[in-house]
Design brief:
With 132 residues, the chain is an all-alpha fold. Helix content is 47%, strand content 0%. The protein is built from 4 helices and no strands. The radius of gyration is 35 Å and the shape is extended. The two termini are 51 Å apart.
């Protein structure tokens, strides 16, 4: 096919059509020959599928799936409690961070995170210069 950089070259549509026909003929011939060469794979797959269906049926009879049934969803009101908001500030400058000042409205529910700086190398008891 024509390159995107070769826009000035003329294109021979007849030649391209002949190439396309050759590809189609090769593909059709390959499809006819495939079953003779590789048809045994389809039989093996069908046999495997029959065996897997038998095994699944045996497991289904042996182990009923009632323990996998989905539980009804928990209503959000049970876990989420929304309290009243403080009054909206009068100015736009006071609007920034107005909910953070109230402890019951902060995002960190359980406390702030105090991990500090940790070194992965110290946790593995490796020397500090080993990964430079």
């Amino acid at each position: 096919m024509a390159d995107s950089q070769r826009t000035s070259d003329s294109v021979n549509f007849v030649h391209q059509d002949e190439i396309w026909k050759a590809h189609l003929k090769l593909e059709k011939d390959s499809a006819k020959v495939w079953s003779n060469r590789w048809g045994c794979l389809t039989e093996a797959y069908k046999e495997y599928k029959r065996e897997s269906v038998k095994l699944k049926e045996a497991l289904r009879v042996k182990h009923p799936h009632h323990h996998l049934a989905a539980r009804p969803p928990t209503p959000p009101e049970k876990n989420i409690h929304v309290g009243p908001s403080p009054p909206v500030p009068q100015t736009t400058q006071a609007l920034i961070g107005w909910r953070v000042g109230h402890s019951h409205l902060q995002l960190e529910k359980y406390a702030t995170v105090h991990h500090g700086r940790r070194s992965f190398l110290k946790e593995l008891d490796w020397p500090l210069g080993s990964c430079d």
